[in-house]
């Protein structure tokens, strides 16, 4: 402090001593996840307020909150996987198709028989393996085949859904394994198992992205692949791992969708790729890679699901929902670009 | 068109500043209609910046530009094109998928009521190409399928289609073989006969003597001589003008390298077709070996091949006597080789990431247990290094983007210091580093060597290579033309070697 302040009790000096830590705190806040996601949180809160005003008695109930979370869970898990791929500089258009294929494969008569005879874990394993295998193919095509991610995963989108149709003969496969439906359709501590899975996947995703070498390398590969390569990172192998991770998330999402609908179907996961990309992007993950946030993605998913819920409760059409969704995407991205520009200068 | 011999362009007192660097500090240039005016200067002398000012890509901070005795403002590349100034860069600005005719009239297509008149374009394109003496180039071929020389002609045809009165050519011969160069000269002579002025930039003195009329020499962002006769000015005089620096860098004293010091890096018969051939050298612990040569002499390519980022056609690299698997960055890094690449921003740094993350990116395993990173330990280690290297501003959490060039370079060096490198490959370590920070980087490099690291240094500044290295390898067109102690050769001799290829 400057020497001309002689009386420590005067208000100016107390202000002067208080201000620096305060600005430092706010700066740290802005850099931390909470600060960066503040806009999103505000948007979600506004949406909730609209919900309470327009459909107060039905919106603000515990049951409705759980409904929103249950609906958000499946696309949420897919979006966590998508966050990794996009942060690593790629994109995955095949997530919806992978969910469909995994759900069909895990509900074939043979798999269900195996599950009924032994344990439902066989259905889960099948879904996870199918998802991861599709992701592996995506990753190999992108990393070693040098096919741009958009095209490689577009091909997977077509092929996986086609394969799902062939396996299921375009028929919806009803799940008859009661233990499976009971477990995943049930609740734990009053919260649906599906929501628990979503929370676990999101938490694990956050830890991996922010606290592990794998996460750090993901940022490096997505931010500057050439620099990452010259720094000694195995860029190709890492890229494969990212797509496998996305595929694995689709496998988990397939299990959740099977539990929610008690079916496996080649029509599951329709347009999930667009919903997931939208949630990831409004969450603040850079589509060009190098910057990604799981918290943002989760809030992004919640915003879209809450929007759906509010519109449904007010008996508004799905078409009106789509228009609102489009508007939200544009506004969110415009705001982000403003913020990015102001923080760079 | 102007009368040949009359003053076409006069630039006086051009000043251009970038943050921390005064790239141009009072440049004068006058070009007459119908002449080939050569621009000569070492790397970093300001040639590229001057061209960007002339073609409207940069706005000068001071100085005047007069065209035909009228002061002009070149606010944008479009403004320059409208005034008849065109440039042909080394990386040609053509669209490879479009045809020759489409490229020539790109942005200026003959049309009526919005419909393009392809036939008219073809006819006109043919006329222009014939005028350039290259009627054999088919106007319907895609530009991408033409050889480099053909693409250059198309680029010139485009300039002419816009009635260019002044064409800047930035090292046009760099991508051409000798046969094509004589073709290029024929085209240039045809242009000047029509009163077009050409500003010609080349490092090859023999070309300047063949095609040039007058020479302007730049050094440290200022004109040191202008209007020299291109044919009769002695080579010695030109080199003296280009070197004789006004700023003297202080180089740290060399270490004594004991004859018992082990050889760490051995490069044996390394070749890549079209880039370099038969490159051999070795570096002992504590030694700095400098590779000198022009852009395109294969310096950076050699370095990247040693690092495994390019796969050699022949030869191999040994570290501590053990041959590395060729073409594998992983193998090189594992053996203890580190690279500070030429393009710091695109090849080394994660600009938006924090300083500490940039430093630890090659040593993440060391800060992790079971894959989980210990951020605290990472920051500690990075903070210790940034203190030692005096990286400013202090703070390992700020994005690297906020640092100056010199401090960014220190971050790259810190990355490899953390890894305890045995071999460090430095490609243009002081590019974009301002004068003050240079000597710091020099001292740092020397200290590293003193600690037993084997260092290979590439720089386009001859003074830097000679001042910093213990031994130098001079490259010309992908071949080593001289190897010897740095103190036994001077800047003039090196420039002689790289520019003329004559024996010392």
From TrEMBL, chain A:
Residues 1-22 are annotated as: Disordered. GO terms for molecular function: transmembrane transporter activity. It is found in: Cell membrane. It comes from the Bacteria. It is a multi-pass membrane protein. One of its GO terms (cellular component) is plasma membrane. CDD domains: TM_PBP1_transp_AraH_like. Residues 7-22 have a biased composition (Low complexity). Its main location: membrane. It holds the Pfam family BPD_transp_2. Keywords: Cell membrane, Membrane, Transmembrane, Transmembrane helix. The chain crosses the membrane at residues 38-56, 68-87, 93-111, 118-141, 147-167, 188-209, 240-259, 271-304. This is Monosaccharide ABC transporter membrane protein (CUT2 family). It comes from Kribbella kalugense.
TrEMBL record, chain B:
This is Monosaccharide ABC transporter ATP-binding protein (CUT2 family). Residues 9-245, 259-502 form the ABC transporter domain. It is found in: Cell membrane. It comes from Kribbella kalugense. It comes from the Bacteria. PROSITE patterns: ABC_TRANSPORTER_1, ABC_TRANSPORTER_2. Keywords: ATP-binding, Cell membrane, Membrane, Nucleotide-binding, Repeat, Translocase, Transport. It is a peripheral membrane protein. Gene3D superfamilies: P-loop containing nucleotide triphosphate hydrolases. CDD domains: ABC_Carb_Monos_I, ABC_Carb_Monos_II. GO terms for cellular component: plasma membrane. GO terms for molecular function: ATP binding; ATP hydrolysis activity.
């Amino acid at each position: 402090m400057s020497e001309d302040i002689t009386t420590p009790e005067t208000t100016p000096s107390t202000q002067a001593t208080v201000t620096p830590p305060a600005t430092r705190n706010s700066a740290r806040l802005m850099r931390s996840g909470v600060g960066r996601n503040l806009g999103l949180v505000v948007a979600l809160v506004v949406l909730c307020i609209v919900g309470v005003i327009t459909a107060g008695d039905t919106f603000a109930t515990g049951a409705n909150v759980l409904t929103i979370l249950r609906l958000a869970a499946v696309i949420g898990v897919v979006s966590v996987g998508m966050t990794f791929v996009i942060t690593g500089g790629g994109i995955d258009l095949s997530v919806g198709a992978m969910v469909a294929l995994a759900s069909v494969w895990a509900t074939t008569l043979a798999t269900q028989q195996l599950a009924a005879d032994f344990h439902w874990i066989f259905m889960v394993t099948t879904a996870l393996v199918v998802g991861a295998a599709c992701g592996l193919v995506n990753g190999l095509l992108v990393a070693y085949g040098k096919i741009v991610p958009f095209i490689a995963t577009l091909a997977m989108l077509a092929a996986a859904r086609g394969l799902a149709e062939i396996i299921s003969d375009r028929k919806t496969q009803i799940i008859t394994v009661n233990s499976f439906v009971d477990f995943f359709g049930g609740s734990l501590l009053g919260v649906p198992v599906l929501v628990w899975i979503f929370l676990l996947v999101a938490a694990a995703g956050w830890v991996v992205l922010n606290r592990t070498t794998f996460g750090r390398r993901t940022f490096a590969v997505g931010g500057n692949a050439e620099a990452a390569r010259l720094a000694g990172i195995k860029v190709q192998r890492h890229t494969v791992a990212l797509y496998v991770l996305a595929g694995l998330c689709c496998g988990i999402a397939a299990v959740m969708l099977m539990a929610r609908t008690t079916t496996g179907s080649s029509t599951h996961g329709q347009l999930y790729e667009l919903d997931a990309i939208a949630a990831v992007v409004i969450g603040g993950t850079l589509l060009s890679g190098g910057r990604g946030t799981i918290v943002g993605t989760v809030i992004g998913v919640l915003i879209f699901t809450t929007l759906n819920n509010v519109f449904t409760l007010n008996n508004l059409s799905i078409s009106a929902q789509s228009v609102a969704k489009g508007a939200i995407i544009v506004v969110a991205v415009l705001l982000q670009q403003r913020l990015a520009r102001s923080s760079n200068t | 068109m102007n009368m040949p011999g009359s003053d076409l362009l006069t630039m006086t007192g051009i000043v251009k500043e970038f943050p921390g660097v005064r790239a141009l500090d009072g440049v004068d240039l006058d070009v007459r209609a119908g002449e080939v005016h050569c621009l000569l200067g070492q790397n970093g002398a300001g040639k590229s910046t001057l061209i960007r000012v002339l073609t409207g890509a940069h706005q000068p901070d001071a100085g005047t530009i007069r065209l035909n005795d009228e002061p002009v403002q070149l606010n944008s590349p479009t403004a320059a094109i409208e005034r008849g100034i065109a440039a042909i860069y080394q990386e040609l600005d053509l669209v490879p998928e479009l045809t020759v005719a489409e490229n020539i009239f790109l942005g200026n297509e003959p049309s009526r009521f919005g419909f393009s008149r392809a036939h008219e374009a073809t006819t006109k394109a043919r006329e222009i190409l014939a005028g350039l003496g290259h009627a054999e180039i088919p106007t319907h071929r895609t530009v991408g399928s033409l050889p480099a020389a053909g693409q250059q002609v198309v680029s010139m045809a485009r300039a002419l289609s816009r009635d260019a009165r002044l064409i800047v050519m930035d090292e046009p011969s760099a991508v051409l073989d000798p046969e094509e160069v004589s073709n290029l000269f024929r085209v240039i002579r045809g242009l000047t006969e029509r009163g077009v002025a050409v500003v010609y930039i080349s490092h090859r003195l023999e070309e300047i003597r063949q095609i040039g009329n007058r020479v302007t020499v730049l050094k440290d962002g200022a004109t040191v001589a202008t209007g020299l006769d291109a044919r009769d000015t002695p080579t010695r005089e030109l080199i003296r003008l280009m070197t004789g620096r006004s700023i003297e860098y202080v180089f740290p004293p060399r270490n004594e390298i004991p004859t018992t010091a082990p050889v760490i890096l051995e490069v044996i018969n390394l070749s890549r077709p079209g880039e370099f051939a038969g490159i051999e050298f070795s570096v002992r612990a504590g030694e700095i070996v400098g590779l000198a040569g022009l852009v395109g002499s294969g310096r950076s390519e050699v370095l990247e091949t040693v690092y495994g980022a390019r796969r050699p056609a022949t030869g191999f690299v040994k570290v501590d006597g053990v041959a590395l698997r060729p073409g594998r960055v992983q193998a090189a890094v594992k053996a203890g080789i580190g690279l500070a690449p030429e393009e710091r921003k695109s090849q080394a740094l994660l600009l938006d990431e924090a300083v500490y993350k940039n430093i630890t990116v090659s040593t993440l395993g060391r800060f992790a247990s079971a894959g989980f990173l210990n951020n605290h330990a990472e920051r500690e280690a990075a903070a210790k290094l940034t203190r030692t290297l005096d990286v400013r501003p202090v703070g390992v959490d700020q994005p690297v983007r906020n640092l100056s060039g010199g401090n960014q370079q220190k971050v790259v060096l810190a990355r490899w210091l953390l890894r305890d490198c045995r071999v460090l490959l430095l490609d243009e370590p002081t590019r974009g580093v301002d004068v003050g920070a240079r000597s710091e980087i020099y001292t740092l490099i020397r200290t590293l060597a003193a600690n037993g690291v084997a260092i290979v240094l590439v720089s386009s500044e001859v003074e830097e290579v000679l001042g910093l290295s213990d031994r130098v390898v001079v490259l010309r067109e992908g071949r080593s033309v001289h190897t010897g102690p740095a103190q036994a050769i001077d800047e003039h001799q090196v420039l002689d070697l790289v520019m003329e290829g004559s024996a010392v």
